[in-house]
Automatic annotation (TrEMBL):
FAD-dependent protein C-terminal domain residues: 266-481
Gene3D superfamilies on file: FAD/NAD(P)-binding domain
Protein name: FAD-dependent protein C-terminal domain-containing protein
Pfam families assigned: FAD-depend_C (PF21688)
InterPro entries assigned: FAD-binding_protein, FAD-depend_C, FAD/NAD-bd_sf
Domain of life: Eukaryota
SUPFAM superfamilies per UniProt: FAD/NAD(P)-binding domain
Amino acid sequence: MDVKKLLDVEPRAWDFIARLEPKLGAVEYMPKEKLASDLVSMLNVSNKGYNNELGISDTHNGSVCPQDKKPRVAVIGSGPSGLFASLVLGELGAEVSLLERGQPVEQRGRDIGALAVRRILQTESNFCFGEGGAGTWSDGKLVTRIGKNTDGVQAVMKTFVHFGAPRNILVDGKPHLGTDKLVPLLRNFRHHLGELGVTIRFNTRVDDLIVEDGQVKGIMVSDSQLLPGSGSQKLSFDAVVLAVGHSARDTYNMLQQHNVDISPKSFAVGLRIEHPQELINSIQYSELATEVQKGRGRLPVADYKIVKSVSDIGAENELDNAEKSRSCYSFCMCPGGQVVLTSTDPSELCINGMSFSRRASKWANSALVVTVSAHDFKPFESHGSLAGVEFQREFERRAATMGGGNFVVPAQRVTDFISNRLSVTTLPPSSYRLGVRPSKLHELFPPYITEALQQSIIMIDREMPGFLCSEALLHGVETRTSSPLQISRHGETYESTSLRGLYPVGEGAGYAGGILSAAVDGMYCGFALAKQLSLFHGDIESFLGKAQKQTGFVKY
C-alpha cells in the first residue's frame, strides 16, 4: 500500500501503520516502488556489446565467448531450480544441456493417468519425476517464506506470467496455479529454452559423475528406461548444476560414493487428513460458507494453515532435546483437491495432495506433519549422511504393508486415531483413487510422532471446532515434505565445498522448500556460475537483492 496516499484519504490510518513491525515476506517498507522485470526481458541482450546496467556481456554475437568455445554446462533435473538455472545460463550464452530422467509433461500426464487407473507405476515418470519436478502434479502453490515482495521472488513470479501464468498471481495473497495451468506454462518454458539453444534430453538418467583431481569433468548418462549403466554414455562439461528433487535417492547414493560433503537435515513426517470441503468452508466462514459455491462464488474455497508446538515424549534427557517440544503443522493444504500417490518404488507407499486451478473437488486435504531431526535417525546411523533417507523408507514400507499392497493406502477415521482403535465401521469416502484400507495408523509411527499428531489434532479442534470429527479421514504416509539432507556448498559461488565443478541447488540439495524458493535458488546459482564462467560481470544483488538464506525446511 502507498502510505502517503492512504493517509491523504484517511489520516486516522496512521494509528494502525505506526504499529506495524517490519517482517520479511509479511510487512516490508520500501522507500520507493520496485518494478522488477521478468528474467527473459531482463536478460535479453539482443543489442551488440555490453549491457552496463546489469554487467552482461553479449555472448550471442561471439564478442566474449566464440561459438566454438562457449562453456558447457549440464543441468541435472528440470524442476523449478533446474529450469531457472538453465534459463539464466542459456540467456547469458552458455552451452546448456538440461537432463531430465523423466518424461515431458505430455507423456508424464499419460503415465500418471495409467497409475491412477491401472495401477501401473513408471519408476522414472510419476508424481515425483518428470518435467517440472514434483510440484507440477501437486498444487502449484506459489507461497514462500523468503519474502514475496523481494526482487528475486518478483522476478520469478513475473517470469511465470511471461510463460503463461495468470497475472493475478502477482497480487494474490496466496497465489496458486494448479496442475492444469502449470502444464502449458512448462511447455512454453521448454519452447523458449529450445530457442535459446538449450539442449533438453528427457528420459536421461545421470548414473555417475566423472571426477578427476577433485573436480567434476563430466557425467555418465543412460536411458532411464534401461537398468543403470546399460548403454552408458560419457559427456564432458565445464560445470554440473545438480538440481534433482528430494526423491532422487539413487543420486544421493552416488554422491556418497564420491565422498561429497552431505549432512542429515531436519524435515517432517506424518499423515494426510481429508475433510469434506463444505465442512472446512463452514468452519472457516460460518454463515458465509454459502458464498463459496465451489470456487465460483464471492469467497474462495476455504483453506487453513496450522502450526502447533507439542511436548516431545521422545526426549530422553535435556541434552537430547533441550526444548523438549516438536513442531506439528499443516503442509501442502489442498482445498478442493485430492490425495495422490507419490511413490517411486512399488515396495514403498507415500502420498501427497494436489488441486487443479478451480479447486472444485468436494474434498479438502492437508498433511499434518511432525518435525524430525538427526536425533531421530539414530537407528539408521549406519547409513551415515543418508540416515534420514532410510528413516523415510522405513515408514513408507510400513505403510505399504499396512495397505496390503497394490498401492492401497492405510486409512483411519481421525476420531479412532485419537482413541487408538481400528476403524471397524465403513470408512468415509476418500478422494484417493486406488483404494483405502482400515488400518491402525496409530501404530505406524513411533509413539513420539503419533502422540504429537494426536495432541495437535485436539488443539486444532479447539480453534476450529468440527475439525476432529467422524467425517475426517487420515491417510498414511506423508514423508517427503522436504529433503532429508543438505549438500554443503559455498555461500557466494554455490559450488560444492567438497567437489569442484558441482553446483547443488534447489529442494533436493536441501536449499529450498517449494516451487518459488527452488526457482529463486536456481536463478541465483545461474548468475553465480555465469560469473565464474566470465559470462556475467555485474553485481546480481544490485538489481535482484541479496539471496535469502535457505534452510530447505518449509512450513506452509
